[in-house]
């Protein structure tokens, strides 16, 4: 049974940093896509960043480019999201997700919720102004 467990959320002032981590267990990931999504109160869940587990191919939402960095540690089976220069509008529950299937290295990274099969329980990030 696949499990994704997020950690690292919390309260931070605007301009500060947080590092989220997603621990994956229950199967071996190869060319799967791993993603971070977020959901603010009253809003739909949205794509933040994604990475191909094996190749390290990366994609970001426009609103986080230059501020967030996604990375993976194959030895630890974790996917991290380093968040710098945080803004109050980054306040949300952040979710880690993974695809069931593997993809070609030439395939674009998945960015829609429906394309991800496994989800963590989420971790709250609150940025105060």
Describe the structure.
It is a single chain. The chain has 129 residues and is mainly beta. It is built from no helices and 11 strands. It is globular and about 40 Å long. Strands 2, 4, 5, 6, 9, 10 and 11 form a 7-stranded mixed sheet that branches. The protein has a 4-stranded antiparallel sheet with strand order 1-3-8-7, with no helix packed on it. The relative contact order is 0.32. A hairpin with a 5-residue loop joins β5 and β6.
Report the oligomer.
Answer: single chain
Distance, first to last CA: 40 Å
Shape: globular
Helical content stands at under 10%
Average per-residue pLDDT, rounded, comes to: 94
H/E topology pattern: EEEEEEEEEEE
The total count of strands amounts to 11
Strand content: over 45%
Structural class: mainly beta
Number of helices: 0
* Rg over alpha carbons: 14 Å
pLDDT below 50 for ≥5 consecutive residues: which ranges?
none
| Major β-sheet annotation | 7 strands, mixed
